[in-house]
Amino acid sequence: MATAAAQRTAGTEADGTPDTAGTTAHQRAFDAAVAAEERIEPRDWMPDAYRATLVRQIAQHAHSEIIGMQPEANWITRAPSLRRKAILMAKVQDEAGHGLYLYSAAETLGTSRDELLDKLHSGRQKYSSIFNYPTLTWADVGAIGWLVDGAAITNQVPLCRCSYGPYARAMVRICKEESFHQRQGYELLLALGKGTPEQHAMAQDAVNRWWWPSLMMFGPPDDESQHSAQSMEWKIKRHSNDELRQRFVDICVPQAESLGLTLPDPELRWNEERGHYDFGPIDWTEFWEVLKGNGPCNEQRITQRRRAHDEGAWVREAAAAHAAKHTGGAGGTGATRA
Ligand code: FAQ
Question: Which of 40, 67, 164, 200 has its CA 20 to 30 A from that of 109?
């Protein structure tokens, strides 16, 4: 029996003609594939709005990965030991790699990397709110690993089952690497938490500052999330923002206890009836202000990103010239191919 995928790629011209209910065969095949948990692939027909939503989310995700390199890279030269420096460099390089997988996934939707970077640099596309906060002490590297990578994993593991194939496959590898990142952050905080009183205080201060912004990473509350319902129908998102936020809180509370650290929320307590931890109100005004560009580091992050892009122009030009030389394309004869 032909799968829904076979039906939607082996289309005819008539597939674009609406039936009496106004639905095309293309649309019916797409809906059937999504309902059957099949993957939508780049050459398959897909609704324009599905494509636009994916480009928006994947681009935002890619931008977050590369802007997310900045707060931690800030500590590479000041890591307290060679071992810590090597781990941190590996982590920051991983984030660059995640950006590359994700830009590649976005390119399969017919958009170019240049276009996406241009939108980031001109403020027409977003990146995660979390990267607009400063890394004030070494303990922030631990707090980012434990909380920010922890929140990222909670959000991203379900994306491994996203209906769009290239995004889902990119997420599998990203999640494996994020797990390593989360553990290095946890281990770093454990060392500080069990260290001198000053080290413990530094770890606690970092957790106090990163906790609430980490909860905001999951996006606005469900009743203010404009994209969730449609994205869940298309099986891009599998859970709502609030569901994932709750899952993250439930995971973090026992981990904080093991670390000997306190989460900065006096309303945090186990709710027997719900089977979840209750938590205090999130300052959504702060979240929306950060999104508008008014967070503590928005300007610094985007200025640094633009500078890095400009300074890397010669590398892109050299890579393009090298590729042209080896393919015999513009600017090269192909004669140097080994
Ligand atoms: N920051 O309708 P919804 C990482 C925007 S990667 C900024 O709920 P949606 C790894 C949203 O775009 C972290 N903007 O939107 C790492 C929309 O605005 P738009 C990034 C946000 O898409 C670790 C508006 O608000 N992860 O950390 C945020 O259904 C350490 C309404 O929101 C991903 O991108 C926010 N936090 O749900 C790297 C995961 N939340 O676009 C380095 C993939 C919402 O209409 C170091 N993305 N907005 O202008 C997603 O899962 C979803 O896009 C959500 C938002 C859940 C983020």
Answer: 67
Task: Give tens-digit pLDDT for 294-336.
Answer: 999 999 999 999 999 999 999 999 999 999 999 876 544 444 4
Domain spanning 34-311: which superfamily?
Ferritin, core subunit, four-helix bundle (1.20.1260.10)
* Residue spans per domain, the chain: 34-311
Whether 118 contacts 99, CB under 8 Å: no
Interatomic CA distance for residues 90 and 85, integer angstroms: 9
* 185 pocket-lining for ligand 1 (C-beta < 6 Å): no
Q: Best mutation site among 54, 100, 125, 128 for ligand 1, i.e. most ligand atoms within 8 A of its Cβ?
A: 128
| pTM for this prediction | 0.93
Task: Check if 64 has its Cβ closer than 6 Å to any atom of ligand 1.
Answer: yes
Tens-digit pLDDT profile for residues 95-146? 999 999 999 999 999 999 999 999 999 999 999 999 999 999 999 999 999 9
